[in-house]
Design brief:
The chain is of the alpha+beta class. It folds into 3 domains: 108 residues, Winged helix-like DNA-binding domain superfamily/Winged helix DNA-binding domain (Arc Repressor Mutant, subunit A, Orthogonal Bundle), CATH 1.10.10; 102 residues, Periplasmic binding protein-like II (D-Maltodextrin-Binding Protein, domain 2), CATH 3.40.190; 102 residues, D-Maltodextrin-Binding Protein, domain 2, CATH 3.40.190. It is 38% helix and 25% strand. The protein contains 10 helices and 14 strands. Strands 6, 7, 8, 9, 12, 13 and 14 form a 7-stranded mixed sheet that branches. It is elongated and about 70 Å long.
Length: 326
């Protein structure tokens, strides 16, 4: 059984960090190169040595050699390798959360030391979705870099929307993400509310529904729908409401660019029910409130234990979103 690693000592030699980790099943103190832990984590999360190497911007042979070295050091096979996929062994599954904790501990050590000497340093990986006036990623990135030039910043978008972003935070691939998932789906994560919004219906201006002041969901579902892909937070919320009411719909257009939803509706391809903050006006499409209000909230999420760059990012993010246009 593995126990949470402790950072007992650290040294720097040509940017190579070492930590001393105690593994209870072995009863010895092992000096482990943190790069090997990072290789192990990347392979576990990607399910592939090739994708792990691409993610870490190194060669596959280095990742394979690093994992083999780690397996020798812990006297255990960490992966079950097949021609199609690499999966964690029982020992690998036990080690994975402890390896993540070890890397986070080392990051905190360097954060504390660097902050006392030359300002905030470290890394920040932010997950966002595109075309949002509430979370202006370019403005955030530019301002954060201006304030904290010593922090290595990366901004990424997930093709699976809020669901993928939350999974990436849990897995340690991201430090902060913006999601629109129900709070029940974010258990185990630290959440910070950014926005409270409501769903509205979007219909073609020539459609008979456009002549009404409010629209019920049970009539809207009789029409073809335009929406974001599965996994997008607002779609998760809406589909659960529909399921709870025994309603079914047909989605004929799935656009990862939510800014195009109104244009698809205006083109006569269907109707939409989305939060107001994602809407971009389009000639030929009109919005109507639902007859029963349906709420939506947007949150930033992090793991429970954070670094100083993450706390700085949260403070800036919430300052910027508070100033965003309503």
């Amino acid at each position: 059984m593995f126990v949470t690693p402790a950072v007992c000592a650290w040294t720097i030699h040509q940017n190579k960090r070492h930590i001393s980790i105690t593994i209870i099943a072995i009863s010895d103190n092992w000096l482990v190169d943190t790069r090997h832990l990072e290789y192990f984590i990347a392979v576990a999360e990607e399910g592939s040595f090739t994708r792990a190497a691409h993610r870490l911007q190194t060669v596959q042979s280095a990742v394979s050699a690093g994992v083999r070295t780690l397996e020798r050091e812990v006297h255990a096979t960490l992966f079950v390798r097949s021609t199609r996929r690499v999966e964690l062994s029982d020992a690998g599954r036990a080690l994975l959360p402890e390896a993540r904790a070890a890397i986070e501990s080392v990051d905190r050590v360097f954060d504390v030391v660097a902050a006392t000497e030359s300002g905030l340093r470290g890394r920040l990986r932010l997950g966002v979705f595109a075309n949002s006036d509430v979370v202006d990623a370019p403005t955030f990135a530019g301002r954060f870099h201006e304030l904290y030039p010593g922090v290595a910043l990366s901004v990424v978008a997930s093709p699976t929307g809020s669901t993928g972003l939350a999974d990436d935070v849990r897995a340690g691939r991201l430090d902060v993400a913006i999601t629109g998932l129900p709070l029940a789906d974010l258990k185990g994560l630290r959440t910070h509310e950014i926005l409270v919004d409501e769903f509205v219906a979007v219909v073609p201006e020539t459609h008979e529904l456009a002549r009404r002041d409010v629209l019920p969901l049970d009539e809207l579902v009789a029409e073809p729908f335009v929406d974001g892909p599965p996994g997008f937070g607002h779609r998760v919320v809406l589909e659960r409401v529909l399921a709870a009411r025994g309603l079914r719909r047909t989605v004929v257009v799935e656009s990862p660019d939510m800014g195009l939803v109104s244009r698809f509706v205006a083109a006569g391809l269907g109707v939409a029910v989305v939060p107001t903050f994602v809407l971009h006006p389009a000639r030929g499409a009109v919005t109507r409130p639902l007859n029963t209000p349906l709420g939506f909230s947007l949150q930033s999420v992090t793991r429970p234990r954070t670094t100083r760059p993450v706390e700085a990012a949260l403070a800036l993010l919430h300052r910027l979103t508070a100033d965003a246009p309503a």
